[in-house]
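cache lookup: miss for this entity combination. No prior model stored, computing from scratch. Input as submitted by user K.M.:
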Amino acid sequence: MTYRTQLFHYHEKASHLTDFAGFQMPLWYESIVSECLAVRNGVGVFDISHMGRIFVTGPDAEKFLNYLTTNNVEALKPNHAQYTLVCNWEGGIKDDLVIMKLDGHEYLVICNAGNRQKDLSWLQTNSEGYNVNLREVSDEVAMISIQGPKAAHTVQRLLEDDLSNMVRFDCKYVEIAGSKCVLSRTGYTGEDGFEVCVLDASISNPANALKIWNMILKAGEEFGLKPCGLGARDVLRLEAGMCLYGNDITESTDPLEARLEFVVKFEKGGFIGKDAILKRKEAGIKRRRVGLRMVGRGIPREKNRILKNGEVIGTVTSGTYSPILNVGIAMGYVTAEYSDVGEKVDIEIHGKSIEAEVVSFPFYDTKLYGLKRLQ
Amino acid sequence: MKAEEYDIPEGLYYTRDHEWLRLDGENCVIGVTDYAQKTLHEVVFVDLPERGRKISKAESLGTVESVKAVSDYFAPVSGEIIEVNDILSSKPDLINKSPYGEGWIAIIKPSDLEAELKDLMNSRGYSQYLKSLIEK
């Protein structure tokens, strides 16, 4: 079965399509490199309607989500969102999510496209005894991401509300062109940016989504806005050091080795996976997720082996060419003793061992790129 | 000559893996075809063979890569690599801009040219081959 998003009719005409998690999605419109550069230097817009959206409501919504996820949902204030993980009982990562708190008893959960069904059944299975209501709205709600240093300028043109009041990870209901939307200052590129959920835009009647998509294209014109495909999305998130579920984190990686402990709040009380993760922590972390930047010539790719003195010490989980750095970059797991920044390793690419160096995330200079760049 | 939107210059020899070969005196200049570069789209990296390397026909000589895709290219004939286009290291997009010209990859001194040329297609043959691929 192939799925299409609310904006498929635009992509079909304007982009080179690819299959991703069963969805026919744009890989690129003009070219991956030019789309990456548009986001780093100006603004780009992405259809991310393939991601899953679930409303969790009811008196126990907070308690329920707090038990299902690793971050502290109790600490979340209304109109704010958090990055978090769902773990299995063994401490493996089932998915990474963004949870938005819209008011006291209403949360919007954003999950990965490939995990829509899995997450929904996991939430349903574990909801017994909680007074919560789960409403999966992925096919009724479209989602558009606007990213880059000019994202705020672009989005401001669609809204009455002053966006300068919204800080990173804030979220709220807004109206755009007569459609009710949830707007959040979030993204997956390392840049400042916004994500818009268009609430009344179903697969069978996507007019509101197409209207807002076209408005964004127009609003960003003077900043060189480009529609961007999944090719650019993958490069941008990797340059920022962000994980791709299914590659860099899976049910057989835990939050500690993935270096995502900053969203695991052991002190908050019980949650699924807590005991297993603590046990793993006591046993010691054997491997770690690292950033790798090529020293020699070559582009590292998923499944390439990572070597130290000829011995295999790990595997690349994501690799690509970085247009802003003009070099091959990768993410992967290596034995803990070789995971420090500055460590020289080799990556086996097409049978050749090519030198690479362990570096910190993000890959780019934060004074020049990303949301903390100097203006 | 053209097949769909792909350029196929006459006078060159072609492989089923989308390499081209041009006779240059006793040597052979090789590269990848317009179809190959358009399929890969934006080339960001070319892995070049070493000068002096002895090669057999159909052996992988290296890769041409875009951000998302990796494509091996193969020796159209046996022989020795006597020259490579080093400019591709810093300007891999020459493969897109000029696949049959400035985007050439290497020069081979062939060891069994007469026999091996018979296995290659001319522009007409390659054009028909491409059409059959596209129809699939």
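stored under new cache key. Chain B touches chain A through 13 residues (CB under 8 Å).
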